[in-house]
Design a protein that fits this description.
By secondary structure, the chain is mainly α. The protein has four helices and no strands.
Length: about 70
């Protein structure tokens, strides 16, 4: 989802060469890096304490409800 949102790059786990390449790509293109940075700030702005608390509460209710249906 981060790559789709334009705020990150996906690299294979355990592939330092791929990570290094992605970092070099960002550094070689300051405009794309700045655009991704702005997108990341906008995305992160949606994470208020209230929203995170509500989402965690909803998740816990779902887990408890699922357990009650299939103990």
């Amino acid at each position: 989802w981060m790559a789709e949102a334009g705020i990150g790059r996906v690299v294979p786990a355990g592939a330092p060469a791929s990570l290094a390449e992605a970092i070099r790509d960002w550094l070689a293109d300051p405009a794309s890096l700045a655009k991704a940075g702005r997108a990341a700030v906008a995305w992160a702005g949606g994470f208020t304490v209230e929203r995170v608390a509500e989402e965690m509460s909803r998740f816990h209710r779902e887990v408890v409800d699922a357990y009650r249906r299939n103990p």
